[in-house]
Amino acid sequence: MRSAPTILHLDMDAFFAAAEQAAKPSLRGKPVVVGGLGVRGVVATASYEARRFGVHSAMPMAQARRLCPNAAYLVPRFSLYRSVSDQVMELLGRLSPLVEPLSLDEAFVDLEAGGTAHDAHSAREAGERLRRDILEATRLTGSVGLAGSKMLAKIGSEQAKPDGLVLIEPGTERELLGPMPVRTLPGVGPATGEHLRRAGMTTVAELAEAGEDELVRFLGKSHGAAIHRMAMGYDDRPVVAERDAKSVSVEDTFDVDLHDRVRIRTEVERLADRCVRRLRGSGHSGRTIVLKVRRFDFSTLTRSETLRGPTDDPAVVREAAARLLEAVDTTGGVRLLGVGVSGLADYTQEDLFAQAAAGESRDDEADTGPAREPAGEEPQEHQETPAPAERRWSAGQDVRHAEHGAGWVQGSGLGRVTVRFEEPWSVMPGRVRTFAVDDPDLEPSEPLPLVRQPPDQSSCPASRPKSRSPAGPVAGPGFPAASSEAEGGEVGFSGGAGRSRP
Ligand SMILES: [Mg+2]
Questions:
Q1: The last residue of a domain, from among 320, 349, 378
Q2: Catalytic positions, please?
Q3: Most buried residue, 95, 180, 343, 467, by most Cβ within 10 Å?
Q4: What is the whole-number distance in angstroms between the Cα of residue 142 and the centre of ligand 1?
C-alpha cells in the first residue's frame, strides 16, 4: 500500500463491441452484442446501448436475443481485437516496465516503477494522457483508475466507466469501500459472498467491523485473513509483469466440508464455467483440464486429462472435470475444489468461426470432443442442403467483393448472404446488398484497421508499423491488412490468468 496513487488500472470500455462499432459505422450508437452465435453461445461483450436492455457478458445468447431482439449479433474478430490490444499494451509499456495484463483489454501499470508519476498530480496527468493516446491510436475509449493499490485502482476504473478517470486519494480507501458490497473485494466470489450474506455481512464495512478472528472462523485462516485485510483497504499485491501465463485456474475453499456427491459435482461444474470465462477473457483456449481436490484431512489431489485439441467450450471443460471427479474418493469430505485449464493456445479466428458454425449445425448434439474442425469440414449429415462445399458466412465477418469492395456480413440464410459495404472510416453507413452464398465475387477477408493508415505507411504492408519512439506520434499505427502475422505473432501478454483466486 503506497502513499501516492501511482498504480493505474486501465479497462477498455465494452471492448469487443466498441471495436465493432468503430469498424462498422452503421452500428454506432446502436445495440451490439458480440459472442458465440451458436445454440450454446454466450455473450462476450455487449455495447452500452445493449446493456440498457439488460444484456451482459456471459449471458446465454438466446436470453440476450429475447431481451434485445434488435441488436446486431456478431461473431468475435479476435485478430482485430488482438491488434488493437497490442497497440494499447504498447502505450502502457511506455509508462512503465511493470505492466500486468489481465486480459486483452485490461491491465495494471505501476507508474512509480516507470518514473512516470510520483504523486496524485503527476499520476492524474499520466492517466489522462494515456486515455488521449489510446483514443488517438485506436479510436476507442478506455477508463482509468488510479490508487495506491491494485484493488482500489480496479474499483476506480469501474467507477470511471465509461470513458472516465477516477483517482482514489490514499487515506480515503476505507470510507470509499465501506458501503460497497462484499463481492467488490478480490477473493469474494459468489459462494463466499453468499456465505457472508447468510452470516449477516453484506457490505465491506461489516466485514471490517467483524474483525479478523471472526472472518478466519468463517472462511478459514488464509482466506479469512486476506479478506479482512482487503476490507480494511490494505492491499500490498505488487504489479507483476507476467509474460506468459501457462494456465488458467480457479478454486473455492469451503468453510464446511462438502460430503454430498451431487453438491460436489455442482461446485465442480460452477468452477469449470468460471474457469472458462477467465480463459476466454484472456483470449485463449487450452488442452489440459485439471481438477484439484483438497480433502477433509488436507491431502490434496490433482487429476488431469488432455484433450485432442484446445477448447474454450464450457460444456467440454465441465464434462472433463466431471470425469476426473468420478475417479476421486470424496467420502470423507472436501474442503477445496479447483478447476484449471493448461496447455494454452491463442484463439484463432478460424476456431471461432468453426465454433459458431458448429453451434448452428449441430444443435443439441453432445460434443464428441473439443477438436474444432474448420467450418467447411463439419459433418454434413444434419444439413438440409447437401451441397458439399457451401460457404458459411457468419454475421460480422469481413468480406471483400470484387466490385463493391470491403464490407461485412450482416446475415445469411436460405442460400443468400447480406453484406453491408462500409469501412471503419466511412462517413456514412454503407449500402446493403444481397448475394448468393456461393457468389464467386465474394470472399472472406481480413479485418481493416480501425484507424486508416497514412499513405506513406501503406506502401510497406509487411512490416507492423508500431511507433517505438516515446515522443513519436501514435496515430495510425494500424496493422497490415493481411494480418496473418498477427495470428502467429507473440501475444506479448496473457497474464493474470495464471493466478488462482478463491
Ligand atoms: Mg473492458
A1: 349
A2: 106
A3: 95
A4: 8
